[in-house]
Amino acid sequence: MKYLDRKIGWLLLIALAVAFPYLAGNDYYLTVMSLAYIYAIATVGLNLITGYTGQYNLAHSGFMAVGAYTVGILTVDHQVPFWIAFALSGFVAAAIGFFVGILSLRLKGHFFSIFTLCVGYIMYLLIEKWEGLTHGTVGIIGIPAAPSVAGIDFESPRAQYYLVLFFLVVSVWIMHRIVNSLLGRTFMAIRNGDDLAEALGINLMRNKVLAFMLSVFYAGLAGGLYAGAVRFLGPGLAGVDQTFDMTMYMLIGGTGTILGPLLGSVSMPWVTQYLQFLQDYRFVVFGPILVLLVIFLPNGVVGTYLAWKARVASRASSSGAQVKPAPVQMVQQQEGSHA
């Protein structure tokens, strides 16, 4: 774990991800990992508004569905090229997020979460009932896969895997740049307290809406990738259970970290794969696990490690400060004896 917060650790993770198709036994494993990467992109976006800005959005899966249906509707019903539709998926989600953010971000805490829960349910109902646009419960069938670029075909599971991995790496790198910039520190100041942020001269509403739009842009982008990978869409993608899954990934890995949501998103789908016999009782099983996690590891795996590392560094620096004056005293004593 100690190497994962360094550049060499990230390069090692990328190398393992690149080698995974050669280690996987069949194409099914590639498909599972590709979907895990797609949800990792959406979870990284959710972490921006939740872990770094302190606002818990329960409509995140609805915005992921917006991005997916943008690709599905444009490519299937209007024959728009896939890459144009994909490029629009994130921007359409962000545009809707702007209006939702203007209305919802005036609320705080649980009130904001309850409002976004209602927004997510409205999105689900619109997708299910608006048959003329979304095809209703029948769903959208026959979404084309990503077309070839520079002679590279993305029809095979392996090529699809590398395509999703590419977008995951770019998304995580951009998010790393955001959270380590002045903008990211602005978001964290808002998370630590609205009054403190206002005292520092931060425009709360403008920055909250910006964080919300960036967050749902990631969700829309993940939805566009999902549409091209699965090639079928139904209303279930906008269900609140999808948001709860992403929340679980984020909590297990650690909110307010870059590696945490990524680690949770990639590891938990494999756990559920090996516990498929408990699929009908998933909330009964994972509910108590989440409660125990919040109680004993409130910062998640990565967050707990970083907190432990900070405590060790603090003890080392304090002990060093206590030991440091000793040689000075010894030198003084030696000078006195020579005198």
Spatial ordering of strands, largest sheet: 1-2
Helix content: over 70%
| Poorly predicted residue ranges | 326-339
| Alpha-beta content class | mainly alpha
Q: What's the β-strand tally? A: 2
Radius of gyration: 23 Å
Overall average residue pLDDT: 85
Q: Which strand-content bin applies to the residues?
A: under 5%
Largest sheet: 2 strands, antiparallel
Number of contiguous helices = 15
Compressed to H and E, one letter per element, the order equals HHHHHHEHHHHEHHHHH
Distance between the termini: 54 Å
Overall geometry: globular
Features:
339 residues; two-stranded antiparallel ribbon; 15 helices; 2 strands
Please give a structural write-up:
With 339 residues, the chain is an all-alpha fold. Helix 2 (27-52) runs antiparallel to helix 10, helix 2 packs across helix 12 and helix 3 crosses helix 10 (204-230). The chain starts with 6 loop residues before the first helix and ends with a helix. The protein has helices spanning 7-23, 27-52, 60-77, 82-104, 109-129, 131-134, 157-179, 182-192, 194-199, 204-230, 240-253, 259-274, 282-296, 300-323, 325-338, and strands at residues 140-141, 232-233. The chain has a two-stranded antiparallel ribbon. The protein is 76% helix and 1% strand.
